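Form 12-C: Joint structure prediction
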Amino acid sequence: MAEKNVLVLTGGGDCPGLNAVIRGIVKSARKKTGWKVLGSIEAFNGILKDPMEVVKLNKKKAAGIHVKGGTILKTTNKGNPFDYPVENSDGTWSTADLSDELLRRIKELNVEAVINIGGDGSQRISQKLHEKGLNIIGVPKTIDNDLSGTDITFGFRTAVQIATDSFDKLVTTAESHHRVMIMEVMGRDAGWIALHTAIAGGAEVCLIPEIPYDVNKVVNHINKRYEKGKGFVNIVVAEGAKPIDGNTFAKASTEAGYEHKRLGGVAYRLSEELKEAGCKADIRETVLGHTQRGGTPIAFDRILATLFGIKAFELVADGDFGKMVAFKNNEITAIPLKEAISEYNYIKTDAYEIKAAKSIGISFGD
Ligand code: F6P
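Section 2 - Result
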């Protein structure tokens, strides 16, 4: 029987659980005769580079990797094949549509199907490539949990655990110094990490992109805590949070091919805003940044990622392409990629978790 190749790649920001997905795919493929697993290094860059950077993924390469953070296949958020960064002879950069060249090279490798493990941007690319005829399956990953179509993405709960552990440490210092401690977490468009960390840690204030905040309301909330004699406040702020009538704290990226604005540092702006609005307490800021994406995945994420990998290969073996694997109503399933990218997973402002958080005294500054 002719050998069939499935090509796996990881795109976008790294995320705890990526290696567990890869291992799930490799282990399932071994059980099915005639399948070989290839990996493209750094998302689609491995295919588009000269020479190509493609590795064979066998039992040995996948052994024990489910406990490791990052991705053995490396990743990038600067490799959209439809808008690929190309260096000009004068050293400047422009972009070009290399999707046809990508498909040609994938064919040359005798690849039957592609499994693209990535976030919203990566799955948009998956859908576009599927429309061009590629047999592709998406696996949703992001610590931000902002992909709809799945109830949860792997990596999210690990990020919340990391943030909660840090939050707990900041509570003791807030209490000891009678300070306001601001902790900034990731979440450029959706505030899931902030909301879950605020509930898990017991924050007094939680600021998320979905609910623009009124700084005066935040200061009133802080002052009430000090008036009651408790004398300390812990705030969780998502990097994408913004004041009413204000903007997200972001700067344009100077990195060629990087399609997002760079976020990070809103904690410092908030600190200034609180002082200007009359907050008298001492304030300190902590930006957790990429620590939330690093290290080993917690058990839940290892399991979810492993099941996603197994399901992705099942779809490949069944020839059921153009789908994204998903976790819905406690079941591993798959939905059309088109549906998965049709909307964004924002926190609904009338969500039960928001109501519940407010009922235990967490202010969203609204
Ligand atoms: O998409 C996940 C995310 O963690 C965002 O919350 C964050 O803004 C972004 O990645 C930063 O990624 P990088 O520094 O890799 O560009």
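Section 3 - Comments
Residues 185 and 289 are 6 Å apart (CA to CA). DSSP finds twelve helices and 15 strands in the chain.
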